[in-house]
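Practice problem 4.
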């Protein structure tokens, strides 16, 4: 738990702090009974230094498993073999004193990188995938895939001249990672993984890829082109990184959608366990607008737990910080606090003391309280999901950008002669829109009271209002 589960010491069991393998099997069976699919987070690039494979690898330079990890002699000056940096800061190489060699860790020193060039490693990782697929999981979210292939010559990464705020030789962002990641065998390896999925029926994986290309969209597209898109698709993280401005989002979504070929599944998201929460980034009201966007775009939508309630980042005092990445910033703990179930102590999450403190807004922002309030964020998500589940247009319809406004993002979803128009007010002011020929009904709105209203030629969106309009046709 040095990196909260991303340091695996056994790929084929459940950590007792979470339960047992039987619990996991029950979870999958019960989820399937309710038509819920289960994806596991799979970590192929590194293990824990406590994994028996690494313990054996480290035990001696002549160990059978030495080559399962990436070991190198020191540079001529006795320092690390090259200048590669850990994502969490500092050299990516750790000296192992007894052998005098360094091992590579693209993340923490407690997370040594596996050597994917080694056939036996690849075999072992594929059987770990099968272990879970045999137990019925529907696929994987695949961690940190870019690191699965590195430069064969281990050349130094060049300095990033634009990274002016980064501490040279320490901050990961001080270098351009052209050699330490995204190597020549990356897609070959992802294809090996999808070939395992193909041994089963209806399995899928979503890759965590962070392209370093200036144009992120081209970067994401490589993952559709390089791997069978019916079996794998990359997260598109721009929903997290872009500034909350209608033209910025419009440009990104329009370009991305235009590049989607038949069979490509866009994977949109506005939050995850590594980034500040959407309600904190853009504010409570705009976070609801983002929900309308997320759940009316084509493809798969990923909702981070608590987003549906409007949960915020929590300030974590120094003595309570758990995240090893909490060097300069507050780390990632603020977005990882306990789920807010009710207004009971500890938000109903536990009767024990949780690892991280519960947000002090839990009396208001929790499942129990919000369920009873039709205007709550939770009920907005429920209406959106209910609508999305029964809407063939949202599931199969095309995406088309419509009129550009400065503060309103607008697009159309269409299937046959059925049309949905989505209008999202990104500003804190009302927006009066005149849309000639538009006749329709608001089927979902961030503002509950507007649902059911008919629209005829014009409408005024309230501040941060997002609406889905069922367009009338004759
Ligand atoms: C990406 C995960 O999302 C993050 O939480 C983790 O620290 C790194 N990969 C390393 O596995």
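Answer key:
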């Amino acid at each position: 738990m040095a990196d909260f589960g991303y340091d695996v010491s056994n790929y084929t069991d459940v950590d007792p702090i979470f339960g047992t393998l039987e619990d996991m099997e029950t979870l999958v069976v019960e989820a399937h009974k309710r038509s819920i699919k289960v994806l596991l987070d799979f970590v192929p690039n590194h293990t824990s230094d406590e994994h028996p494979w690494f313990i054996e690898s480290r035990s001696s330079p002549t160990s059978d498993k030495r080559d399962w990890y990436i070991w190198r002699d020191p540079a001529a000056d006795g320092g690390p073999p090259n200048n590669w940096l850990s994502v969490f800061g500092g050299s990516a190489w750790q000296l192992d004193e007894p052998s005098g060699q360094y091992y590579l860790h693209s993340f923490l020193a407690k997370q040594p990188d596996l050597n994917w060039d080694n056939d036996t490693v690849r075999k072992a990782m594929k059987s770990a995938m099968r272990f879970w697929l045999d137990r019925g999981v529907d696929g994987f979210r695949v961690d940190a895939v870019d690191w699965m292939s590195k430069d064969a010559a281990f050349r130094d990464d060049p300095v990033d001249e634009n990274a002016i705020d980064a501490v040279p030789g320490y901050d990961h962002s001080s270098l351009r990672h052209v050699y330490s990641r995204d190597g020549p065998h990356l897609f070959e390896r992802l294809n090996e993984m999808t070939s395992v999925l193909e041994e089963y029926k209806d399995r899928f994986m979503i890759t965590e890829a962070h392209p370093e290309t200036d144009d992120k969209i081209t970067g994401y597209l490589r993952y559709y082109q390089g791997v069978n898109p019916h079996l794998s698709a990359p997260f598109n993280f721009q929903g997290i990184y872009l500034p909350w401005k209608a033209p910025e989002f419009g440009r990104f979504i329009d370009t991305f959608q235009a590049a989607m070929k038949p069979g490509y599944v866009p994977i949109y998201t506005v939050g995850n366990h590594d980034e500040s929460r959407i309600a904190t980034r853009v504010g409570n009201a705009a976070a609801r607008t983002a929900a309308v966007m997320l759940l009316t775009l084509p493809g798969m939508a990923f909702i981070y737990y608590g987003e549906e309630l409007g949960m915020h980042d929590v300030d974590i005092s120094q003595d309570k910080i758990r995240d090893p990445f909490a060097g300069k910033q507050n780390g990632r703990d603020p977005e990882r606090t306990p789920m807010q179930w009710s207004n009971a102590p500890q938000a109903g999450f536990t009767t024990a003391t949780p690892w991280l403190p519960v947000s002090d807004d839990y009396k208001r922002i929790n499942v129990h309280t919000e369920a009873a309030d039709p205007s709550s964020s939770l009920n907005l998500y429920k209406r959106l999901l209910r609508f999305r589940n029964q809407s063939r247009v949202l599931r199969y319809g095309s995406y088309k950008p419509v009129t550009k406004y400065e503060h309103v993002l607008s697009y159309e979803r269409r299937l046959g002669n059925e049309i949905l128009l989505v209008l999202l007010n990104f500003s804190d002011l009302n927006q009066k829109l005149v849309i000639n020929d538009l006749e329709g009904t608001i089927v979902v709105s961030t503002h509950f009271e507007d649902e059911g209203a008919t629209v005829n030629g014009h409408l005024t969106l309230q501040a941060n209002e997002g609406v889905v309009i069922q367009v009338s046709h004759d």
